[in-house]
Automatic annotation (TrEMBL):
Region (Disordered): 146-180
Single annotated GO MF: heme binding
Name of the protein: Cytochrome C
Entries under InterPro entries matching the protein: Cyt_c-like_dom (IPR009056), Cyt_c-like_dom_sf (IPR036909), Cytochrome_c550/c551-like (IPR051811)
Annotated SUPFAM superfamilies: Cytochrome c (SSF46626)
UniProt keywords, alphabetically: Electron transport, Heme, Iron, Metal-binding, Transport
Organism of derivation: Melaminivora suipulveris
Domain Cytochrome c: 43-127, 181-290
Amino acid sequence: MNKRQTRLFAIIATALSAALFLILTFDSHRKFDQLTNAESITPAVTHGKNVWHKNNCINCHTIFGEGAYYAPDLTKISKLRGEAYLKAYMKDPSKFYDETRHRRLMPKQDLSDEDIAGLIAFFDWVSNVDNQGWPPRPILVTGATMPGTDRSLEQQTSGAKVERGGIEAPPGARPLAGDENPIALGERVFRTATPACTACHSTAPGVNMAGPSLAGIVGRSEALLASGDYKGHAKDVSGYLHESIVEPSAHLVPGPMYSADGTSFMPTTYGKDLTPEQIDQLVAYLMSLK
């Protein structure tokens, strides 16, 4: 190209780039309210945001992948932990972690009930923002590590995908031909339910997260049912596991990490979010964890 053609090319390319930038900017602004779930910004959400900033939570935690990366990303925390858990945790984090053993340095902020309610509302709003998959692998709330490895359990499970034929199986998907094993289907439910069971439970012995390890759950359940300490209505292990999924507060596992004020921290939504078939498959998988 000669100088005139080069100059003309540069002008046209710049103009097209500027036009494209303006169109994309306009389109982004047009969708901001929808993408950010703006209609759900209540006074409680605003108050929670102010509590978040006042206590410099971002100095340790991240939201949308932005923050100090010292502590877990909290973008989807309200979908991974229920309100009862978050409320009890923020009242006194020391009940949930042994600082010497887990190296947790979460300070007790002495937050008021109003501040805690605001933070929970803020986290709930954040979790419903369409962040288009960012961060791609949010850090889950656990400091546990798998025995014999230096990889944390959160690294091993937060990005886990259950695939069949190279395609990730969505929650509630019907089994494909040759994929009728209820234990295998139950393991898929274990990893793909919302929230995923792997967010709170491990299947490794001694690795307790927000919920107790499920390794050996069958033997422990048998001992519980025979002990006289059981407070629920199940008659056998499979019934107890089913009850624990759909009615988690029927029997409370001892310990401040797992319940407060007579209410289990286990989500109560699985009974309506999962089909009876999926719950049976999940029970079949748990029954395999001898």
